[in-house]
Design a protein that fits this description.
The complex is a heterodimer.
Chain A: E1 3-9, H1 16-24, E2 31-38, H2 42-48, E3 56-61, H3 66-76, E4 81-84, E5 90-91, H4 95-106, E6 110-118, E7 124-126, H5 130-143, H6 148-157, E8 165-168, H7 169-175, H8 187-197, E9 201-212, H9 230-242, H10 251-271, H11 277-289, H12 309-320
Parallel strand pairs in A: 1-2, 1-4, 2-3, 6-9
Antiparallel strand pairs in A: 4-8, 5-9, 6-7, 6-8
Chain B: H1 7-11, E1 15-21, E2 24-30, H2 34-53, E3 61-66, H3 74-80, E4 84-89, H4 93-105, E5 111-114, E6 117-119, H5 139-146, E7 149-155, E8 163-165, E9 175-182, H6 184-189, E10 193-196, H7 202-208, E11 216-218, H8 227-230, E12 240-245, E13 248-252, E14 262-271, H9 278-286, E15 293-300, H10 306-313, E16 320-325, H11 330-340, E17 343-350, E18 354-355, H12 359-370, E19 374-384, E20 391-395, H13 398-401, E21 408-410, E22 413-419, E23 433-436, H14 437-442, H15 455-466, E24 469-481, H16 497-512, H17 518-534, H18 540-558, H19 564-569, H20 575-585, H21 605-615
Parallel strand pairs in B: 3-4, 3-10, 4-5, 6-9, 10-11, 11-12, 14-15, 14-17, 15-16, 19-24
Antiparallel strand pairs in B: 1-2, 7-8, 7-9, 12-13, 17-23, 18-24, 19-20, 19-23, 21-22, 22-24
Helix pairs in contact in B: 16-17, 18-20
The chains are: A alpha/beta, B alpha/beta.
């Protein structure tokens, strides 16, 4: 079982040492680590040159964006399964071994895992989507099992975080899956379509990665600049693609996607600079007018352990007025 | 002694001129030639004073003033820079007498006057050279300075009383004998600062100083000198110069002297499986032997062994460098080559093409003298008959548009200035251009690497917008090889890259408030028409719908109205109707920049492929 771990970096500097090492030190050793250097400066290049491990492959490119870099990684990946890790995050030592065991037991095309959130305070928490993971477990236990449609609905409801999934390369091929070039908030598209194309999914209780909220490290999702507009483009294409897929008929999965999209949109709108808000809304309204209206019907059994359905529906209506 | 050309000057008596330069004020007694006086003053104020104002020169050193006249440069300079020593050369005995008098009158003890010009035909002197930093000259050198000999010059009537050495100067035929010294005495003096006013002797002087550590050079070039001669040999150390020549100037600044930037041209050749052509390509760049032009061949993961061929063929050739990378497309190869380069100028050419001998020298020369951000050559289509192997070179369609010779020149090269917007529409021809690297860096112009077609068009459009105007050099052509089946002609999904390419430009236009986006929009419609025409039939619907929505969004973003005939000229069926339908739906919305942030699955090939995968039954 060979894994392709894809990591992209743009000037992450010394902080990425531990990210790289967290992959190279995996107990499951059959892997390749593809680092796409998205036009970093000398400091990061120096850090990258420190490692002496034939499993590490570095692909430089001129600064062309995170999505472009991830796509370059996908292009070069040779492993059976593919996963991602941001250059300032960390993969648990046992992560690949645990996933490899799951794949051997179940032959799943996609495995979704859980994470740790290292926030601004002292305590280490479970990652944001822990409530979804726990609610899925409860539902499966109650019903005795969970079919693919149920798994897909809950999988879609998970935080679209690139580190939380392992995908068979054949799924990537089947769906021609790529990240949206020129856009940030790229994960929602890839997450949604990977789940749609997967024919078998496992959601496992594996503490597989740690996401760091950092005070002194630039994080794209922390800006109030115009990149927050990118969510609109990404969301629009995600919804356009998904509504053509047979899974669109899975009302819970569709609802879960819409909740995720609305949550991201509202978060971006709340954080974009005040003087861009009107433009943000104009573009968003135009996007909503062009998608299938069924998206706005959120069934009651939509995966929603955080009870956001009412609130986000109201937000959607507000945009449309 | 040297005849004056100005009729009135012959009768005028010497007059006193107040000269203020370098923060010093002096009274110069001059020959009273008003034409010459104003010429001297403008050289002093517009060339030398501006040059010294813009440099950090050492507190002390040796300055040589060639063609000192009555002391226009020497006297104020020696007054202003008391810790510098000046050796002033003047061959005209009238002017020399006044020079000596002016020096004496201002009590300048740091000036030595030599009654001589330099002459390239005189035998070189063999004396000890001055050690850099020493104020005392070796005795043998002092002695050599006194041993002037008569040599033949011609008088330059328009520039009188200047004379040019009789070797190759276009004089008026009247020759005369003046006292002179060999040019190599300058190399022996190794001045820290050289001010030159030596018509038609400049090339010999530049040649003599190639390996001499002369840090600063200023003065008008009356004759064209190949720029590579002034750029010092590496051992000579950093050199800054400002050498006006007609309308332009050869110039090198502090920034150009950073060890990380070589003032040369790197030609990046992006190579992917072109074993058949690569040698012809590289050889044509090297053909004229200009050491200031080097080649970086980027092997973009080729599988036909062309990398090995280059490695072997150019082993030991310091002008050719091979770098290898994993395959990533033409844009990535070009960017990679750029990041490997430390040259001040850069070009990107295709590995199956070739150039006229001397083309890049012509472009670099024009670029160096004019300081142009971008210079371009002509281009021709190269067709090779598959059966007979016979080559035909057809000048491009531009030959009809730009038929006349250039109205500007640098040495033997003639060119004209082309407004940047003139290259916005039409086929991308980035391969026939030389770009200033600092220009590309400052304007953040790169080849977008995720775009597997049109990456050169986006590059060209940005250059078009930012460069102001570019120098179009006549008489040299790039040979653009024609293949029966060129990539993009397959009519596949790659045509859809044009949407996200133009969107990124339009977003830039919003961010930077471009005053005029009409060239961009003309190019957009042009590209759409071209793409649609060559597109595979099954993709046409998606393109048609994608184009309509895109143009509607552009309209609503910029408040721009596309004219019906513009839309119909694209040849996209019903485009005007479709655009209007979108606009009708949006008619209650205000014009707003937010619309440019929309995205559609029809606007990127990756999305198109994902949609195809979805529809094939996920």
């Amino acid at each position: 079982m060979k894994f392709s771990c894809i990591m992209t970096t743009f000037n992450d500097g010394p902080i990425m040492r531990q990210s790289v090492m967290s992959i190279l030190n995996q107990t499951h050793e059959e892997l390749e680590l593809i680092v796409v250097d998205d036009g970093s400066g000398a400091e990061t290049k120096a850090v990258l040159s420190e490692f002496n491990d034939s499993r590490l492959r570095i692909f430089p490119q001129a600064n062309d964006g995170l999505s472009s870099a991830r796509n370059r990684g996908l292009h070069h990946a040779k492993g059976d399964y593919i996963c991602f890790l941001d250059a300032d995050d960390v993969r648990s030592p046992w992560a690949l071994a645990e996933v490899a065991r799951t794949i051997e037991e179940t032959d799943a095309e996609m495995v979704l895992v859980r994470g740790v959130y290292s926030g601004e305070r002292t305590t280490l928490e479970a990652f944001f989507d822990e409530p979804q993971a726990l609610a899925f477990d409860a539902e499966r236990e109650g019903a005795g099992s969970a079919d693919l449609a149920v798994r897909k609905a809950w999988a879609t409801s998970l935080e679209p975080q690139s580190a939380n999934k392992f995908i068979a390369r054949s799924v990537i091929e089947r769906g021609k899956l790529r990240f949206p070039n020129d856009h940030f908030f790229e994960d929602i598209l890839f997450h949604t379509m990977a789940i749609a194309h997967a024919r078998s999914i496992e959601l496992i209780d594996s503490r597989s990665y740690t996401y760091f909220q950092r005070q002194l490290h630039r994080q794209t999702t922390g800006s109030n600049g115009t990149i927050r507009f990118d969510i609109i483009g990404t969301a629009r294409v995600t919804l356009q693609l998904f509504q053509e897929h047979p899974d669109f008929g899975n009302a819970r999965q569709r609802g879960a996607l819409m909740l995720s999209v609305l949550r991201l949109l509202r978060w971006c709108e709340e954080n974009i600079a005040v003087y861009h808000r009107f433009a943000f809304r104009m573009a968003l309204r135009e996007t909503f007018r062009g998608i299938n209206p069924l998206y706005f019907i959120l069934p009651e059994n939509t995966p929603d352990p955080r009870d956001e359905r009412e609130d986000l529906s109201r937000y959607a209506r507000e945009i449309m007025v | 002694m040297i005849p004056k050309s100005d009729f009135e000057a012959k009768t005028e008596i010497p007059s006193t001129v107040e000269v203020a330069a370098f923060g010093a004020r002096v009274q110069l007694t001059t020959a009273g030639d008003r034409v010459e006086s104003s010429r001297r003053l403008s050289e002093l104020k517009e060339c030398h004073e501006r040059f010294l104002a813009s440099r950090v020169i050492p507190k002390s050193g040796l300055c040589v003033d060639l063609g000192a006249g009555e002391g226009w440069f020497t006297v104020p300079f020696a007054m202003a820079f008391r810790d510098w020593n000046v050796i002033a050369f003047e061959t005209d005995s009238d002017a020399f007498a006044l020079l000596q008098a002016n020096v004496k009158q201002h009590g300048l003890e740091n000036v030595v006057c030599i009654n001589a010009a330099l002459h390239p035909s005189l035998k070189p002197v063999h004396v000890q050279a001055r050690t850099s930093g020493e104020t005392e000259l070796p005795k043998s050198l002092m002695k050599a300075l006194g041993q002037t000999t008569p040599a033949m010059f011609t008088s330059l009537s328009a520039l009188a009383p200047r004379v040019a050495p009789v070797t190759d100067a276009p004089g008026n035929g009247e020759t005369l004998s003046c006292s002179a010294l060999p040019v190599n005495i300058l190399a022996k003096l190794a001045p820290d600062l050289l001010k030159l006013d030596a018509p038609y002797c400049e090339e010999a002087i530049a040649q003599a100083l190639r390996e001499v550590p002369v840090g600063f050079l200023t003065g008008r070039l009356y004759s064209y000198v190949p720029s590579k001669l002034f750029h010092p040999h590496e051992e000579a150390g950093p050199r800054e110069f400002y050498l006006p020549h007609h309308d332009y100037a050869l110039r090198r600044d502090y920034e150009d002297n950073f060890p990380t930037r070589r003032p040369q041209l790197d030609v990046v050749v992006a190579m992917y499986n072109t074993r058949e052509y690569i040698a012809e390509c590289v050889d044509s760049i090297l053909a004229d032997g200009n050491p200031d032009i080097r080649v970086i061949v980027v092997d973009d993961g080729s599988t036909d062994g062309c990398g090995d061929l280059v490695e072997k063929r150019y082993a030991g050739n310091e002008r050719v460098r091979l770098v290898r990378k994993a395959n990533g497309g033409c844009a990535s190869a070009r960017n990679y080559g750029r990041r490997c380069s430390n040259a001040s100028h850069i070009a990107f050419i295709d590995a199956d093409d070739r150039v006229d001998e001397g083309m890049f020298t012509a472009l670099l020369e024009t670029a160096r003298y004019t300081g142009a951000f971008v210079t371009e050559a002509e281009f021709s289509f190269l067709n090779v008959d598959e059966e007979t192997g016979e080559e035909t070179l057809t000048p491009s369609y531009e030959a009809d548009i730009y038929g006349l010779p250039g109205d500007c020149c640098v040495g033997e090269y003639d060119f004209f200035w082309l407004p940047g917007r003139d290259i916005a529409v039409g086929q991308p021809t980035i391969w026939r251009r030389v770009h200033r690297r600092d220009f590309l860096d400052r304007k953040n112009i790169w080849f977008p690497e995720h775009v597997r077609a049109f990456d050169d068009q986006i590059f060209q459009l940005m250059v078009s917008h930012y460069c102001g105007s570019l120098a179009h050099v006549k008489g040299y052509a790039y040979h653009y090889r024609q293949h029966p089946a060129q990539d993009i002609k397959q009519g596949d999904e790659r045509h859809f890259y044009s949407f996200n390419m133009f969107r990124s430009l339009l977003l830039r236009a919003l961010d930077e408030h471009w005053a005029d986006i009409t060239p961009l929009l003309r190019s957009l419609l042009n590209t759409m028409g071209w793409s649609y025409g060559g597109l595979r039939n099954d993709l046409k619907i998606a393109y048609q719908e994608g184009a309509a929505k895109f143009l509607a969004i552009v309209s609503k973003t910029f408040g721009h109205t596309f004219l019906p005939h513009e839309l119909n000229a694209t040849g996209i069926d019903g485009l005007e109707f479709l655009v209007n339908r979108h606009l009708e739906k949006m008619k209650d919305e205000p014009v707003n920049y937010g619309f440019m942030r929309l995205e559609s699955w029809r606007w990127q090939p990756e999305f198109i492929r994902m949609m195809q995968a979805v529809r094939m039954g996920g």
